Amino acid sequence: MEFTKTNEAEKPLMGRKEYMLSMKFDGSTPKGADVKKSVASYLKADEKMVIVKKIRQKFGMGDADVNVYVYHDAKNLQRFGEIQKKKALKAKRDEDLKKHKEAKAAAAKPAEPAQPAPAQ
Question: What pLDDT, in 10s, does the model give residues 57-106?
Fold first, then answer.
């Protein structure tokens, strides 16, 4: 993978730099984890502080535009890292949905009819 910086913006209130990179690659579009590792080495940043926001592939070509956030410290990453927030919210939403479905299924389940006493 080869990268070229197309845009760089400092966001001091969020404690990060935002990069727009142009990426050239062979074959299929690389996975986010592979792009993250390559971008970290290209920008000489700690891999833990890099978030690949978006990979936009140009149809039928080995080119893609990549939006990347590089945080200055772990505090800001935790505070503003949207991907982590989305994953946490999705996990909570899935858990709540599962509980709701279980409660609904339990309520919809008819009570077993009482068995008549055996005749003597």
Answer: 888 888 999 999 999 998 888 887 766 667 667 778 888 888 888 888 88
The two three-digit tokens of residue 16, written as one number: 């990060």
Is residue 33 classed as helix, strand or coil in its secondary structure? helix
Q: Is the pTM of this model over 0.70?
A: no
Helix (H) / strand (E) element for 83: namely helix 82-108
Per the structure, the complete domain to which residue 75 belongs is given by 2-79
Nearest to 76 by CA among 30, 11, 5, 7: 11
Q: Is residue 65 in a domain?
A: yes
- Residue 42 sits in a domain whose CATH number is 3.30.70.330
